[in-house]
Amino acid sequence: MTSISPGWYKDPADPTTQRYWDGGGWIGAPLPADATPPDGPPPAEEPPAPAGPPATTSAMPQAEPPGYPAQGYPPPPPGYPAAPPPGWAGYRLPPPEPRPQGMALAPLGARLAARLIDIGAVLLLNIFINGWFVWQYVVEVWPTFSEIWRRSLADDRSTEGLPQVTERASGLQMVIILLAAAIWWAYEVPAVANTGQTLGKRLARLKVVPVEPGGQLGFARSFRRWNTLGLPTLLWICCVGFILQLIDCVYLLFDRPLRQALHDKSAQTVVVQLPPGVPASVAGPGGGSRTGGPGADRDTPGSSA
Asked: Which of 63, 69, 206, 303 is an S-S bond match for 201, by CB 3.0 to 4.6 Å?
């Protein structure tokens, strides 16, 4: 992950402001995005002056608000707590939801819909490319399967004389799994590397972008993102691969604040929702939106994957 040189950049949490990045984090108070920042880092903030006794004016008497008695404000209404509830003094408002590259995080429902569309597209490709091998595998294992089914209906638990699965069936199974992984790789990796979108994400108006401001996806990062989710396909033969992929995808339900799946964490990417009315081509390939994201102008740090 390439480090970003110090300078003034748009704040990913609030694209309407800009802050100073010192190479390790944001420092200083934010400025409006269209303001001219100083040449260097912001000046150190002065500590607040100690609170002193309130100023009094002898010339102007302090008048009570209209309708209030001269002795002061009336007591609170019945049932109103006289003191703040326990813990109120340390209460802090929750931080705003992050906006990577100036865009909102993708809703979970839209991500699920996009993944289902992609699964359907990869399945159709497998039918055309992998269909012949699947048919040959069914022909090889059908005698064994039909005999097991016949004996189960007859409540026959014996294994004597049961047809054995041939070595050709085992070889076909491995070929089917390897082809399925290769088809998935060819479908997803180049598309995400070039545009940040697969067919499903384009239809759902979602986009994969880097976490760091101004970063680019590129082929290497897209490959690393797919590896975490796609390589367990090779372990489908023992059912372990499917469990690993399920854990990978379910992880985003518990991740905060970026709602990243494990394959997103591996590649330092995040899935965002394109703003309404903005075509997918306007948001640059794998980077921020050209209409206001951190990758939109020269004031944003650039880095290569």
From this structure: 206
Domain definitions of the chain by residue range:
102-273
> Could you tell me the two tokens for 251?
């992880």
pLDDT in tens, 157-169: 888 888 888 899 9
* Integer angstrom CA distances of residue 86 from 75, 80, 83: 21, 15, 9
- Here the tokens at position 91 are 């209460």
In terms of Cα–Cα distance, which of 250, 223, 263 is closest to 112? Answer: 250
Calpha distance 26→23 (Å, rounded): 8
> What global pTM score does this model have?
0.62
Tokens of 241: 């691969």
Q: Is 277 left (phi over 0), alpha (psi -120 to 50) or beta?
A: left
Tens digits of residue pLDDT in 202-255? 999 999 999 988 888 899 999 999 999 999 999 988 889 999 999 999 999 999
pLDDT digits (tens, 9 = 90+) for 91-150: 566 778 888 888 999 999 999 999 999 999 999 999 999 999 999 999 999 998 898 888
Q: Is the pLDDT of residue 201 over 90?
A: yes
